[in-house]
Design a protein that fits this description.
Elements: H1 2-15, E1 22-27, E2 35-42, E3 49-53, E4 71-77, E5 83-84, E6 86-90, E7 93-97, E8 103-110, E9 120-121, E10 125-128, H2 130-133, E11 145-150, E12 158-161, E13 164-167, E14 170-173, H3 176-180, E15 184-187, E16 190-198, E17 201-211, H4 215-236, E18 246-253, E19 260-263, E20 267-272, H5 280-283, H6 285-293, H7 320-337, H8 343-358, H9 368-372, H10 375-378, H11 389-392, H12 396-412, H13 418-430, H14 438-449, H15 451-462, H16 470-476, E21 479-482, E22 488-489, E23 494-495, E24 498-499, H17 508-511, E25 519-523, E26 526-527, H18 534-538, E27 546-553, E28 556-563, E29 565-566, E30 571-574, H19 580-590
Parallel strand pairs: 1-11, 17-18, 18-20
Antiparallel strand pairs: 1-2, 2-8, 3-7, 4-5, 4-8, 6-7, 9-10, 10-15, 11-14, 12-15, 13-14, 16-17, 19-20, 21-30, 22-29, 23-24, 25-26, 25-27, 27-28
Helix pairs in contact: 4-6, 6-7, 7-8, 7-12, 8-12, 14-15
Length: 592
């Protein structure tokens, strides 16, 4: 669907710009209480009934969100402003009838979560993710949309969006699909921009920042953003052909938002409670790197399973280990190559993700494809009933990231690399906007690195959940990996003296029958108290030591015994004993 949009967008600009558009108007008189008033007009309606809906899913998210829950004060009017009847056929839809060929609907939206999925309205800004904010008429989805805003003068808000700007207060989308993929930030933001030559055309890269910091901080931060853009361009050999020749970062680093990042076709949302002061100049850059990489990988190198995007239901994709995970692999690698992280900082940063994946039980239950299928249950999804995901699930971001690392290092042993594989994927699928399948990725790797290599990678690590030989791969680029902690391993997360999560399968705590909610009261005859926590007790205990534990469950006192295991955590460092070949491969990998 997106490649069709790309091919036709110039046609829409020339034709639909002057054809009948649905018009949207938004006002914010009660912003201090998180309310906006949305007025949508649909002209030239030929059917007796016009159905309008709120979406249940949002581009870049893979879970069900029921955005209709924040809508109230709904009313419908004809062309003369006379209120007309409507009914509700389901929780997400309003059916309007008795009109005279034109319908205007009006409603109030409550919005108070500023992130990449939801919307937030307050006295500092109006942060609008479109599916979370705007109703739509499915029968009129091919019509262009014009949108304007009325904002309180005292707020000094300006509009930032990937929508086509018509004049100071009028923005345009060629159709509903593009509109729903185009977040909007209204605030008194700062703006920086620079031009980049791409595909024989000049592209404008805009960085919009709503924050409480200084102009000098924004200037310094923008220099880092430019380095990221240029370094990622090297991976693919070119920038995408952005619609309207522009890409916009919509950053909001404010104390009232929720940390997040969300990619869109020609823009991205970046939210963080960290300001640019206090190390935010460095710590916020990871999201910048991750989301901009998505301009290629997921927005244009796009899984067929996500096309066309369904705003009413939740899609399921088995490719998220590649779309999200390989993007996660490049996130910090790009920062290192751009000189924004040292090689030591980058390698040290591998430890957390590697240990999480390597030591997870999730590979016993799902391969990367099946782990990707779990997205509707974990991607900002909510549930009331307990689940066992700390034993059965590995984030496809992290799982895919360590597999991307393994593939890159494996290719480099053959004088190949993941960058060139991505270029091949880009030219074959992304640049032409042909949606891909897992089989397409497999066959393309076979073409690039040979059938034996490609079959081995996919058959062992994608279709199955085996793990690569990381010790050998790390050694090949002059890295050292070792299990060196002597602290005994228990296998249960603790909140003071209460086990706070499901104990890990096959861990000492699991084998001893301990469970979430158990309160440890005594260990080896030592009382556990508010001042004497179990975690502190463990600090000087070694592998092989036996613990006699007294605990309470459901008000009953119980006893068990366990033997502490070896700490499974590994440490990855740059080796001081690497040979010249390994050092050369490492330098080429990190581009330092």
């Amino acid at each position: 669907m997106r490649n069709i949009l790309t091919l036709l967008i110039l046609f829409f600009c020339a034709v639909n710009l002057y054809s009948q558009a649905n018009t949207y108007k938004v006002s914010f008189d009660n912003a201090v209480h998180h309310e906006g008033v949305f007025t949508l007009t649909f002209p030239k309606i030929s059917s007796d009934t016009l159905s309008v809906r709120m979406a249940n899913s949002s581009p870049g998210r893979y879970a069900f969100h029921s955005f209709a829950k924040n809508v109230y004060n709904f009313k419908a009017m004809d062309s003369n402003g006379k209120q007309i009847a409507f009914s509700r056929s389901n929780p997400y839809q309003w059916d309007v009838y008795g009109h005279d060929g034109e319908v205007t609907i009006q409603y109030t939206l409550f919005a108070n979560r500023g992130d990449g999925t939801y919307s937030q309205i307050d006295e500092t800004h109006a942060h609008l993710n479109i599916p979370a904010s705007f109703m739509f008429a499915p029968s009129l989805q091919e019509r262009p949309i014009e949108i304007s805003f009325t904002t309180p003068e005292a707020y000094k808000w300006k509009v930032a969006t990937q929508l086509k700007k018509q004049n100071e207060n009028l923005y345009w989308a060629p159709n509903l699909y593009y509109f729903m993929d185009s977040p909007i930030e209204l605030s008194n933001y700062g703006l920086r921009e620079f031009k980049v030559k791409a595909n024989g055309k000049e592209k404008n890269i805009r960085f919009v920042l709503h924050h409480n910091g200084t102009e000098e901080e924004l200037d310094a931060y923008f220099e880092s953003v430019k380095l990221i853009v240029k370094e990622q361009e090297k991976v693919f050999g070119e920038l995408p052909d952005f619609d309207f020749d522009e890409y916009t970062f919509l950053a909001c680093y404010m104390p009232n938002v929720n940390g997040d990042g969300m990619e869109h076709r020609n823009s991205t949302i970046l939210t963080s409670t960290r300001s640019l002061a206090n190390n935010g100049l460095k710590r916020n850059l990871g999201t910048v790197s991750h989301e901009f990489f998505h301009a290629w990988n997921v927005e244009r190198i796009r899984p067929k399973s996500l096309e066309p995007f369904d705003f009413d239901n939740v899609g399921m994709s088995g490719e998220l280990w590649f779309a999200e995970g390989f993007t996660s692999y490049y996130t910090n690698l790009i920062l290192c190559r751009a000189g924004l992280r040292t090689p030591e900082e980058y390698v040290n940063g591998l430890n957390g993700t590697f240990n999480y994946v390597w030591n997870s039980n999730g590979t016993k239950y799902f391969n990367p494809i099946e782990m990707s299928y779990q997205a509707p249950f974990v991607d900002a999804a909510t549930s009331l009933d307990p689940q066992n995901r700390n034993n059965t699930f590995i984030s496809y971001y992290s799982y895919g990231s360590v597999l991307g690392l393994a593939l890159d290092l494996s290719l480099r042993q053959r004088n190949l690399n993941l960058d060139d594989f991505f270029k091949k994927i880009w030219n074959k699928f992304g640049k032409k906007e042909i949606p891909y399948t897992i089989k397409n990725l497999h066959l393309t790797l076979n073409e690039y690195a040979g059938k034996t290599f490609g079959d081995n990678f996919f058959n062992n690590y994608i279709y199955k959940s085996k793990m690569p030989d990381y010790k050998s791969l790390f050694s090949g680029v002059g890295l050292h990996i070792v299990q060196e902690s002597e602290v005994g391993y228990f296998g249960g997360a603790m909140n003071k003296n209460t086990i706070s999560n499901n104990t890990l399968v096959d861990s000492p705590a699991y084998k001893a029958g301990l469970e979430k909610g158990d309160v440890i009261t005594k260990v080896n005859a030592v009382e556990m108290t508010d001042e004497n926590h179990f975690a502190d007790f463990l600090k000087d205990k070694k592998q092989g030591e036996t613990l006699k534990i007294t605990y309470t469950r459901y008000g009953n006192e119980k006893e068990t015994e366990l033997i502490l295991a070896k700490d499974p955590k590994y440490t990855i460092t740059i080796s001081n004993e690497a040979d010249e070949k390994a050092i050369s491969l490492r330098n080429n990998w990190l581009k330092q």
